[in-house]
């Protein structure tokens, strides 16, 4: 059932993005935006849709919030893959945007995807109440900018040239910003759309985000590059500290499972209605990409 629900959400998110981008001018940048935002797990968008469902939010409103965070996430990957950052040639099994086009186009594609995310949230179709739309924009800006994802990316870059490897506490903070912030936001967004207290969902999402990154570190060691659709073992080759290098493979897996238990426990106030969110948490540590 979970895989079917995820597949339905993936299709709905793609249709939504296709419709939104169909109104954009024909250009290399638009082509790059479509290319960069196609495919992927759609986990962030799915989280927005599922958390909103707990509060009987209009599905169209939830879908647009999910599409917005998928645009933001796609922008971050386009820029992260560039030579000045992680210098990756593959993403989702396809050439990265700067490889398929060029670096200047990749910069502009990322910029356009980022601004489109906020345009989607600010549009009346996302919610009739302007205060709700403003809160969505404010919280996404904080999650993605210098207090969240961008901070984490800067911390990651600094760690590459640091004379001393990061401690477990430091890498937990780094990944909470770089990866976790954009997994927390869609859960917070679902509550904002529903006029509900986001605290239990934020607790769920923080544990989920950390488990997600630990699972990524495990996949970097044990994963299949063909399934992952990107190069693996780059962190180990670069000598970067990861959860696996600091904890060991089996202890890292155990820590991820403990976090998933913590995430599921945070959903107790919602009872069986949150079962799909519990399935998402379990999926995070069993995925192969």
Q: Roughly how much helix do the residues carry, as a percent range?
A: over 70%
Low-confidence parts lasting 5 or more residues at pLDDT below 50? none
- N-to-C SSE string, H for helix and E for strand: HHHHEEHHHHHHHHHHH
The CATH superfamily label reads: Farnesyl Diphosphate Synthase
Number of strands: 2
Keywords:
two-stranded antiparallel ribbon; mainly alpha; single chain; 289 residues; Farnesyl Diphosphate Synthase
Topology readout:
Blueprint (H helix, E strand, L loop, with lengths): L1 H20 L6 H10 L5 H11 L5 H22 L9 E2 L2 E2 L1 H4 L2 H20 L7 H15 L4 H12 L7 H27 L4 H24 L2 H4 L5 H5 L4 H5 L1 H18 L8 H10 L5
Antiparallel strand pairs: 1-2
Helix pairs in contact: 1-2, 1-3, 1-4, 2-6, 3-4, 3-9, 4-6, 4-9, 7-9, 8-9, 9-10, 10-14, 14-15
Structure report:
The chain is an all-alpha fold. It has a single domain, classed as Farnesyl Diphosphate Synthase (Orthogonal Bundle). Helices cover 72% and strands 1% of the residues. The protein has 15 helices and two strands. The protein has a two-stranded antiparallel sheet with strand order 1-2. Strand 1 (90-91) and strand 2 form a beta hairpin. Helix 1 (2-21) runs antiparallel to helix 2 (28-37) and helix 3 crosses helix 9. The mean pLDDT is 94.
Summarize the structure.
This protein is mostly helical and 289 residues long. It has helices at 2-21, 28-37, 43-53, 59-80, 97-100, 103-122, 130-144, 149-160, 168-194, 199-222, 225-228, 234-238, 243-247, 249-266, 275-284, and strands at residues 90-91, 94-95.
């Amino acid at each position: 059932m979970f895989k079917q629900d995820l597949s339905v959400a993936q299709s709905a998110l793609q249709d939504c993005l296709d419709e939104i981008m169909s109104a954009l001018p024909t250009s290399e940048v638009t082509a790059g935006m479509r290319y960069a935002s196609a495919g992927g797990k759609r986990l962030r968008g799915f989280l927005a849709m599922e958390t909103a469902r707990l509060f009987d939010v209009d599905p169209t409103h939830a879908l647009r919030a999910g599409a917005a965070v998928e645009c933001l996430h796609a922008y971050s990957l386009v820029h992260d893959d560039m030579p000045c950052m992680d210098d990756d040639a593959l993403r989702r099994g396809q050439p990265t945007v700067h490889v398929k086009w060029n670096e200047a186009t990749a910069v502009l594609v990322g910029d356009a995807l980022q601004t489109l995310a906020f345009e989607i949230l600010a549009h009346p179709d996302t919610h009739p109440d302007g205060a709700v739309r403003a809160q969505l924009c404010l919280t996404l800006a904080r999650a993605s900018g210098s207090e969240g994802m961008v901070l984490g990316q800067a911390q990651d870059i600094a760690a590459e040239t640091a004379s001393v490897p990061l401690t477990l506490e430091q890498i937990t903070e780094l990944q909470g910003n770089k990866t976790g912030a954009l997994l927390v936001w869609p859960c917070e967004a679902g509550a904002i759309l529903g006029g509900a207290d986001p605290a239990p969902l934020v607790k769920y999402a923080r544990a989920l985000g950390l488990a997600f990154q630990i699972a990524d570190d495990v996949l970097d060691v044990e994963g299949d590059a063909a399934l992952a659709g990107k190069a693996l073992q780059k962190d180990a080759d670069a000598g970067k500290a990861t959860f696996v290098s600091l904890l060991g493979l089996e202890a890292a897996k155990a820590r991820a499972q403990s976090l998933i238990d913590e995430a599921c426990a945070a959903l107790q106030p919602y009872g069986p209605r949150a079962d799909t969110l519990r399935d998402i948490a379990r999926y995070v540590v069993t995925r192969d990409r």
